[in-house]
Amino acid sequence: MPAPINPDLPRLDRLKLWLIGVMLARPGEVLADPGFAAEDWDMIARCAGQHRLRPLLYHRLRDSWADWAMPDALRVNWHAAYKRAALRALDRQAVTVDVTRTLEAAGIAAAVLKGGALARHYGSAALRPMRDIDVLVAPAEAQQAFALLVKSGLVARAEVSGSVHVDYATHKHLEALWCPRRRVAVEVHTALVDQPRGRREDDVLLQVEALLGGRRSEDVGGHPVPVLGWAETMLHLIVHAVYDHQLNNGPLVLSDCAVLATDPEADWARFWEIADRAGRGAGARLAFGIIEAFAPQLPAAALPGGENPDPATVEGSALLMLQDTGQADAQGGWDRLFALGSWRRRLRLVRDRAALRSRAAEHHHHHGDSGNLTLAWRMLRALADPVQRRDISRSRAVFGWLQER
């Protein structure tokens, strides 16, 4: 049975945890009327919109909400979001197939990453909105792959906000490409992680050639598409969400892990071997712990013995996944600092980011320190907001737990 939601939490936090349980509910499962007031549904609608949950929530709730005191406008909005997501998914699937065919026709081994590899597991691609399409290639073939995709009709474009600070020489992907016809970005990845500092040398996610050598095929829109091995895909999802984004890129990763766990090709022995060898086993236990707390469904092999997170850590992690994206800059700054562990690493992060922003600003004839001062001011100002202060406290506790393991 799911763990009961702590009644002492602020109302907004209880609503967020209810959302986690709903998005992880099994398809067709009839859910009890939560008895929410109109203002509660307003908060839920805002949170669902920020984190791309509307299609999934519509699909999970449509068999349950007939007699609920839920605003009709919200039902209509979520239904419309579901239909838009279904149409958008067709475009993204078409681009995914075209990109992989273009690369493989030229003899370039490629693998589609994250959401692009999960459509079959969701049943409907509409349930897993994708911001962009990520494809991994060997570093030595990246420029050739980029040129081929441009020749095929994609166009190079400047990234959205913050792209001026990206150093593509060390970044995990090249400059984003844009498909004008389908209106979606494509990123050619040369690595699964940005910087190997702090990662173990035998971390499988650093071994790009081996990852590509272990590819398998997934059905995407009726066409075979190359993806990473099952264990590597699961580990990448967790590392990307827990370690690279400090839990602040939304809760869809929980749904991703839950549906991927049902794959008949699941190899849990290999997953735990590569996760623990890479020093990322604690992050996996954290992600799986959230799923089991709010919608128990994982197989026993996903929950081996070991030091699993306590209920407070699970609760705090789930709430960090649903933090207000309007405060993403300030909260993200605190999350990154806490995730680094030692103060030496934290100061190095500040120094490196300041240097990169300064170089970029000089190129564009702006004052080099303005971006850093603005971020620092937002981080300090966040301490005066009770909601943000709670998230900062949770971040410190959660990443403290991860650092100790």
Overview of the molecule:
This protein has helices at 11-23, 38-50, 54-61, 72-105, 119-122, 142-151, 208-213, 230-244, 252-260, 268-277, 281-294, 311-321, 328-340, 343-363, 370-382, 386-403, and strands spanning 110-112, 132-137, 155-156, 177-179, 184-189, 216-220, 223-227. It is 52% helix and 7% strand. It starts with 10 loop residues before the first helix and ends with a helix. The strands form two sheets. A five-stranded mixed sheet has the order 1-2-5-4-3. A hairpin with a 4-residue loop joins strand 4 and strand 5. With 405 residues, the chain is of the alpha+beta class. The chain is globular and about 60 Å long. Residues 159-165 and 356-370 have low confidence and may be disordered. The longest helix has 34 residues, at 72-105. 37% of the residues are buried. The chain is built from 16 helices and seven strands. It has a domain at 323-404. Helix 9 (252-260) packs across helix 11.
Give a short synopsis of this structure.
With about 400 residues, the chain is α+β, with helices and mostly antiparallel strands. The protein has a domain of about 80 residues. The protein is built from 16 helices and 7 strands.
